[in-house]
From TrEMBL:
<protein>
    <submittedName>
        <fullName>Flavin reductase family protein</fullName>
        <ecNumber>1.-.-.-</ecNumber>
    </submittedName>
</protein>
<keyword id="KW-0560">Oxidoreductase</keyword>
<dbReference type="Pfam" id="PF01613">
    <property type="entry name" value="Flavin_Reduct"/>
</dbReference>
<dbReference type="GO" id="GO:0016491">
    <property type="term" value="F:oxidoreductase activity"/>
</dbReference>
<dbReference type="InterPro" id="IPR050268">
    <property type="entry name" value="NADH-dep_flavin_reductase"/>
</dbReference>
<dbReference type="InterPro" id="IPR002563">
    <property type="entry name" value="Flavin_Rdtase-like_dom"/>
</dbReference>
<dbReference type="InterPro" id="IPR012349">
    <property type="entry name" value="Split_barrel_FMN-bd"/>
</dbReference>
<feature type="domain" description="Flavin reductase like">
    <location>
        <begin position="8"/>
        <end position="157"/>
    </location>
</feature>
Length: 159
């Protein structure tokens, strides 16, 4: 398994934060598996560990948000990658953010792009769950911002 993890670490992946509002709380996690699945209709997919708290919340609540982080947002990525169940509002303390009007989930400002989605299908895949979702809205796009990428277990800017 170690060789498999190392082999997959050779593949650069964009870094995103996925958030969901659950009652009075907000939950989120850093992911490197957000991807486009279809253009017509617009669908995205995110892969999450089956045992994660975010997975538990997304199985209860269909609407969520994803922010594609930009270079310079490494601290936000690291905060959301921390194990445990800290509130997303605490993790975003001092960082500009707002609530998505369609999902009520927190959206980090200053990223490369942000969208809101509604899960339409959940597919078990080994020790992960794949959440396939319809895109409800694109909150913003900032093509001038360089994306944050994870490669070889480190966050790296795209130059």
């Amino acid at each position: 398994m170690g060789e498999f993890v190392e082999a997959m670490g050779q593949l650069p992946a964009g870094v995103s934060v996925v958030t969901v509002r659950e009652g009075r709380d907000d939950v989120g996690a850093t992911v490197s598996t957000l991807m486009s699945v279809s253009l017509d209709p617009p669908l995205v997919m995110v892969s999450l560990a089956s045992a994660s708290y975010l997975t538990e919340m997304l199985l209860r609540r269909d609407r969520w948000a994803a922010t594609v982080l930009a270079d310079g947002q490494q601290a936000i990525a690291s905060r959301f990658a921390t194990p445990g169940r800290p509130s997303a509002r605490l993790l975003l303390a001092g960082a500009a953010h707002h609530r998505g009007p369609n999902s009520e989930a927190l959206i980090v400002e200053g990223g490369v792009a942000a969208l809101e989605a509604e899960t339409s299908q959940v597919v078990p895949a080994g020790d992960h769950m794949l959440f396939i979702a319809s895109v409800l809205a694109v909150d913003y796009i900032h093509p001038a911002n360089a994306p944050l990428v994870r490669l070889r277990a480190r966050y790296r800017p795209v130059s």
